[in-house]
Each structure stands twice: as C-alpha cells, then as structure tokens.
Amino acid sequence: QVQLVESGGGLVQPGGSLRLSCAASGRTFNNYFMGWFRQAPGKAREFVASIYWSVGNTNYANSVKGRFTISSDNAKNTVYLQMNSLKPEDTAVYYCAARQVMATEYTYWGQGTQVTVSS
Asked: What pLDDT does residue 53 have?
C-alpha cells in the first residue's frame, strides 16, 4: 500500500526558507511523477511542482519558478521541495502526490503539512 508522508512545514518570516520532505513507500516509483500541490484557505488546490522520479525532469508553477526547487533522493525514497524567498501568499497546506507516468490524475496523496509565512 502506497504511503506518502510529508514533513518540514512550519512558521517562517517573509523572505525565509523551508524544506519540505515527502517520504514515499509501498512500491517502486521509477515510473511515477511526484508532485507538490498546495491549498490556501478558501482557495482551490493548485499545482506547485513535479518531478519525473527516474529521469529527474522538473516542472514548476509560474508563481514559484526561481524560488522553489523540487528534487528526489532515490536511496531514501524521498522527494523534497526547497522553498526560498517565501512570501505571505505561499501560506497553504502543502501536499505530496504521486501518479504513474501514463496516468492523467494524481492517484496517491499525503496528509499535508502546513506552511505559514508571516511576520
């Protein structure tokens, strides 16, 4: 059974940094896209970044491009989201998700981790 467990959220001042982790288990994820999504209060969930695990190709939302970096550690079966130059509008619950390469929807989701950017 696939499990995705996020960690690393917290409270940070504007301009600060956080690194989120997503520990994945239950299968081999070589043919999976791993994604980070976020949902702010009263807003729809939105895509943040994704990585094709076995190849390393990445994709970012325009709102985070140049500030966030997604990466993976195959040995630890973990995906990371390094977030720099954080803004108050980055405040949200951040979710890790996984989908097979040929799938159109993300199938597996973590429980989420809260990120709050405030002075």
From this structure: 87
